[in-house]
Amino acid sequence: MGKGGEGGVGAGKNMAAWLMGVNTLKILPFELPPLDAHDVRVRMKAVGICGSDVHYLKTLRCAGFVVKEPMVIGHECAGIVEEVGSEVKSLVAGDRVALEPGISCWRCSHCKGGRYNLCPDMKFFATPPVHGSLANQVVHPADLCFKLPANVSLEEGAMCEPLSVGVHACRRAEIGPETTALVMGAGPIGLVTMLAARAFGAPRIVVADVDGHRLSVAKSLGADEVVVVSPHVQDVEAEVARIQNAMRGEVDVVFDCAGFTKTMSTALSAARAGGKVCLVGMGHNEMTLPLTPAAAREVDVVGVFRYKNTWPLCLEFLSSGKIDVKPLITHRYGFSQREVEEAFDVSARGGSAIKVMFNL
Amino acid sequence: MGKGGEGGVGAGKNMAAWLMGVNTLKILPFELPPLGAHDVRVRMKAVGICGSDVHYLKTLRCAGFVVKEPMVIGHECAGIVEEVGSEVKSLVAGDRVALEPGISCWRCSHCKGGRYNLCPDMKFFATPPVHGSLANQVVHPADLCFKLPANVSLEEGAMCEPLSVGVHACRRAEIGPETTALVMGAGPIGLVTMLAARAFGAPRIVVADVDGHRLSVAKSLGADEVVVVSPHVQDVEAEVARIQNAMRGEVDVVFDCAGFTKTMSTALSAARAGGKVCLVGMGHNEMTLPLTPAAAREVDVVGVFRYKNTWPLCLEFLSSGKIDVKPLITHRYGFSQREVEEAFDVSARGGSAIKVMFNL
């Protein structure tokens, strides 16, 4: 489990939600490591559930990582600083902060080149074997804890993590005031990507999904138009025509936030010559795609892995009101055994649940 | 056929190699259009055969284009200016020039944005229905005829066209003094891409192919190391290890100059996190690929379609000696019915034939 002390005078035992096995979460004690000179100890107040957390719960695996021993779950979080290490100058006890989950090595070429999200030694909340943050308290480097503006809530702070995926995707795809955007998939990731694209200035955004309810949510959150699509590859040609119609012109960038053969096939066809497809979703590992015709139109495919240097921008977007993530939080739970189990059930079911949030 | 006059005093009838049907080339008269104010009339001296020319000969099709009526073949060419239009200031009769084949519209957003290679109204030598340049003479815009430096031969001028594919690929993949490069496929396109990568400063270049002879040519032309690979997808993992060994480090950029499922699978695995795969070859239209794992390592896939603004740089590379294309010209033929037929046979057979060149 953890190591070192128990975390703070009068704090009581530090408890966390542990992934003990398939479909088995238990709230148990979580020993915190000692506070290093550059660390802070944070009392968690808001923690969201991510699709990867659910995947680990169901399968003990996600994208090549395997849970081999009990692990604390959760990584989308915000809280209040309670103690700061001896070298910490940026924060004081009482500060409300949003946490960026991953600790990079800062010695490898990726880190030194600014692409620290690709660090092979990344230690990331709830990516095994690193413990997550669905806990009363965590210890974390101060430079990865970002102070919330006064008008940004702790729940919005926790939303910075999924929002960061959308922000990073928009940067990789070079979204701006002249790039129209198609978002495939209106789940939580499609929605934050849409919100980010709008904040980056995309002049027109079309969202496509198989689910009419999710599309109505997308419309209410600002999509210029929504298009219902099918799961069948044979429908690609007709759907691309409807999408281009809805866009009233060319599609400069497509975000595939589902990541299936059907959605990537649609994306590669829908993008204009010289445009970009940003693959965000991780639906299918292997896909049969008409890649060559797309490459011969210079449609580039860019990938995303998590994010880098996105918290300050997310907090600016939230503080200024350019992005409102509050409607994405559809379900709230407290931190008890029964509620943790129910929360993950609801999140796993999808449907009308977008973001399930714990209030601790 | 063509339209307008017959081309020049005392020139005799202008003849060209016409694609009349599958496997049927005939040298027949080719009427030239009238000389526009910004055009020049060029006497062809060197014309190379491209894989696309062979494909049209064998199937009357290439990449979505279909030959529906007799068409003059050939597009890799250089010659001597014989007559200039009234507004032409850049060239005079007697100038030796290399020709860029494609005439863009200069009114659409692609053209105005500098990506004129993506112009939907592009008129390109030997892409139906536009006639090619394997002829005694052609008429062409002066701005697409580039004067050869004194130390660059007409054959090297004709080689600017395939070399441009490699140069454009290197630009799209951002090759420079810090990017190692893997070239999949040691055919004519793989070889010009390798030569271009070296000219752009790539510090280490590994070339892979199934054919040992082609690899020895690549080695003699400057590959740092060559790796023999198989056509079998199950060998990808082992081959990637051998490739990375040969690279003595990470692979920053992979050029797939074959474009098959096997080569793209290898490319996606071999590229480092944050690296690029440039799909140049057009082997398979549809491919089953592990795209998601690559995207999750931020390995981007960039495509190329022909080239843009490459002739001046190609001529600079050839003139300075940074690139020597002469070894790529393995076979030479004159412009007669028998020789045209034989030349295309030899080119189609591949093997030890790299570039087959006509001298007119």
From TrEMBL, chain A:
GO function terms (MF aspect): oxidoreductase activity, acting on the CH-OH group of donors, NAD or NADP as acceptor; zinc ion binding
Protease as a keyword of this entry, yes or no, is no
Determine if Transcription regulation is one of this entry's keywords: no
Q: Which cofactor does it need?
A: Zn(2+)
List, for all copies, the residue spans of the domain called Enoyl reductase (ER). 21-358
Q: Which UniProt keywords apply?
A: Metal-binding, NAD, Oxidoreductase, Zinc
Please give the CDD domains that the UniProt record associates with this protein: sorbitol_DH
Q: Which PANTHER family match?
A: SORBITOL DEHYDROGENASE (PTHR43161:SF9)
- What protein family does this chain belong to? Belongs to the zinc-containing alcohol dehydrogenase family.
Q: How does it assemble?
A: Homodimer.
- Identify this protein by name: Enoyl reductase (ER) domain-containing protein
**Source species:** Spirodela intermedia (Intermediate duckweed)
From TrEMBL, chain B:
| GO molecular function terms attached to this record | oxidoreductase activity, acting on the CH-OH group of donors, NAD or NADP as acceptor; zinc ion binding
* Needed co-factor(s): Zn(2+)
Instruction: Extract the SMART domains matched here.
Output: PKS_ER
- InterPro entries the record matches: ADH-like_C, ADH-like_N, ADH_Zn_CS, ER, GroES-like_sf, NAD(P)-bd_dom_sf, SDH-like
Task: Establish whether keyword Oxidoreductase is in the entry.
Answer: yes
Specify the Enoyl reductase (ER) domain's residue ranges. 21-358
Q: Which domain of life is it from?
A: Eukaryota
Q: Keyword ATP-binding: yes or no?
A: no
Pfam families registered for this protein in UniProt = ADH_N, ADH_zinc_N
Q: Which SUPFAM superfamilies match?
A: GroES-like (SSF50129), NAD(P)-binding Rossmann-fold domains (SSF51735)
Give the keywords, sorted.
Metal-binding, NAD, Oxidoreductase, Zinc
Q: How does it assemble?
A: Homodimer.
Stated family: Belongs to the zinc-containing alcohol dehydrogenase family.
Q: What is the protein name given in its UniProt record?
A: Enoyl reductase (ER) domain-containing protein
Q: Which organism is it from?
A: Spirodela intermedia
